[in-house]
Structure formats: C-alpha cells, structure tokens
Amino acid sequence: MNKAQQASVELRAMDELAAQDSPMHRLSPLSKLFVTVLYIVVTVSFHKYDISGVFVMVLFPLVGYQVSMIPVHTCFHKLRVVMPLVCAVGLFNPFFDKQIVLYLGAVGVSGGVISMLTLMMKGIFCLMASFLLASTTSIEDICRALRQLHVPKVLTSLLLLTFRYISVLLDEAAIMTDAYRLRAPGQKGVHISAWGSFLGQLLLRSMDRATALYESMELRGYHGEFHYAQGRPSSRASWPFAIGCAALIVLARLYNLPALLGGLFA
C-alpha cells in the first residue's frame, strides 16, 4: 500500500470514528463546535510563561476522549505528522530568552525554556481538542453547525467538498503511482525527473474527475448550497454540557487553579 492509499484509508477511518455511538457523539454539533472554539481561544490566550495554567487545559480533551471512548493514542497516531511541526514552533526560544525565571533546586530554568514548553503544550492541546471534534462529529454535521452560525455557504461548501473529494485526488495519485511502479520496477518512489509530468497528469486527471463530479451534482439538483440532512438526534445534555464546559474553561483562565489547590492543601 502506497502513501496515497494510506492517506485515503485514514480519511475513511475518520468517518468511522465519527459514526460511533457515545455520549460525546450524541451531543449537538453546534454545542461541540462552540466549546472547541472557545477552548482553543482560551488556551492560546495564556501568557507565554504561564505553564501551570496551560497544563490544566489538558483536562478537557482527556476527559472528552474518555467520554467518547476513543483512545488518546489514536489522536497522536493520526496527527503524527503534524505534532512534530507544532512542537518545533518554539524550539529557538531558549536561544533568544536566556533570563532565568525560576529554579528547580539548584538548576536555573530560563524564560525561553518555559515559553517553549508553553507553546508546545498550547499547540498539542489545541490539536487534541480539534481532533476530538472531528472524530466525534461528521463533516456534514460540522458544516451544518457552521451554517447555523451564518457562515457563508461558499465556505461551508468548500470545506465539505474539500474533505469529501480529497480522497478522489488520493485515489488518482495511488493509481498513477502504481502505474509508474509497473513501468519502473525496483525503483523507490517517483524519480525527480518525472515529478513535473507526474504532477501535470495528476492535475489534468483531477480536473476531469472534478468536472464529472460537478456535472453529476448539478443533475441531482445542486445549485450552490447543500441541504444538509438531519443527523442523529442530539442529546438533551448538549447545551448544559456546553455551558458547563464553557464556565470551567473560563474559570481555568481567570484563576490559577494549581496555585489555588496548592494553597488549600498547604
């Protein structure tokens, strides 16, 4: 199985995750979208040295994965390519911010190290929350929730079509890769001299498939906007869940919960 086929399989696996049944899956898509966006906004708003405050934010995605019955390692496996890129954002901070801000015993820790760890945690936690939303809510439900928020139909249609038909592009790439291997046995990957013609043929084949797909959509009554079918019935706990989570997220931002708990047990 080549990389294009693996990517296509992983996209279909996301649909399978979203089709599962759990208390998190049964919540309203709009409530989950609201909580996820609020969580991301609050998480990235922490000060670059507030490592303890950011660390508390991991509780929301961890509890969410437990409730949705999706293993946490599934998130890290699916995002194994993106996670290192996110962690690399703050790698140079220790070289620019060398001022010592705290001591661990006799070892001084610079502000650059603290800000690097804070940035890494922010990125990882936001990815975990985003994956939790995507793995418990189908792309149709997410787009329907966006339309309820009056997001322009052009954007929601573009999001839905991009997600749904990127597998078509991957399938075309897989077919072309297999054909290339048959014509170049024993060669690992596509030779650099063939990249230009390979990408050109992939573009032309994709445009042909896109034209055929769009004509099929028009024959079925598409006129610029999708009429999203109603998904599974939403749980009555959807908005109590959203309000409770929003209150806890804002509370974690306004107050240093680790310090408060430390004071209680001191």
Topology:
Layout: H1 3-18, H2 29-44, H3 51-56, H4 59-68, H5 72-78, H6 82-87, H7 93-96, E1 100-104, E2 107-110, H8 111-136, H9 139-148, H10 153-183, H11 195-219, H12 238-254, H13 257-265
Antiparallel strand pairs: 1-2
Helix content: 55-70%
Could you tell me the radius of gyration in angstroms? 23 Å
Span between termini = 57 Å
Cα shape:
globular
Low-confidence stretches: none
Order of helices and strands: HHHHHHHEEHHHHHH
Structural class: mainly alpha
Strand content: under 5%
Say what oligomer this is: single chain
Question: How many strands?
Answer: 2
Query: Can you summarize the main beta sheet?
Result: 2 strands, antiparallel
Keywords:
266 residues; mainly alpha; 69% helix
Question: What's this model, at a glance?
Answer:
The chain is 69% helix and 3% strand.
Architecture overview:
With 266 residues, the protein is mainly alpha-helical. It is built from 13 helices and two strands. The chain has helices at 3-18, 29-44, 51-56, 59-68, 72-78, 82-87, 93-96, 111-136, 139-148, 153-183, 195-219, 238-254, 257-265; strands at residues 100-104, 107-110. The chain has a two-stranded antiparallel ribbon with strand order 1-2. A hairpin with a 2-residue loop joins strand 1 (100-104) and strand 2. The mean pLDDT is 81.
